[in-house]
Amino acid sequence: MYNDYYYRRNNNFWYGEAMKKLPILVQATRMLVCAEDLGMVPDCVQWVMKELRILSLELQSMPKDPSVKFGYLSRNPYRSVCTLSTHDMPTLRQWWDEDWDRTQEFYNTMLYRGGAAPHPLPGWLARDIVSQQLTSPSMLCVLSLQDWFAIDERIRLADADAERINIPANPKHYWRYRMHMNIEQLLTDRDYNEQVKELIDEAGRK
User: Fold this and answer.
1) Omega prior to 120 cis, within 30 of 0
2) For residue 102, how many other CB atoms are within 10 A of its CB?
3) How confident is the model at residue 206 (pLDDT cuts 50, 70, 90)?
4) pTM given for the model
5) What are the strands of the beta sheet with 140-141, ordered from one edge?
6) What is the spatial distance between Cα 166 and Cα 170, in angstroms, rounded to a whole number?
7) Residue 85: how many CB atoms within 10 A of its CB?
């Protein structure tokens, strides 16, 4: 009875509800539609996304396969958006220092490096991580400004915690992140822009 209610009847019901509303929304725009399909997601979500060709959201630190600790970027579906963090999550630099044991495992198994993982996250290693994301099969790779800044220790904020956008569990922590330099400064930083261009070119993205 439990399985029938939650895993058959509810799946069928919410699939039907989604297919009443979502096709109209998807067809109303030329924009690509992306789902934030993270966490515990009912089976019907995948049915709807496949049928309507909605892009999934892929985070290596939150794999959809329960049998692995980190997602394998090479297995990302083409119809997906690859990213390192969302507005409700720690930035790459914060995540790196959050759980040293988990970071160490990531360093050894996903970055294929021996020895102890360096802390805090050095720019050269952040660059490697960003490069891996860019070379994934995902149609889009969308990284936050904070994670892009992480590759250059010269321009990134000294305090990684100041880069956090939102902490959902803390009502006093609101969306207060502001970029610490203006667009004009960023545009004239030739060294940084060259690094970004090089990473994108190496990945074959445009």
Assistant:
1) yes
2) 15
3) confident
4) 0.91
5) 56-59, 80-83, 140-141
6) 8
7) 22
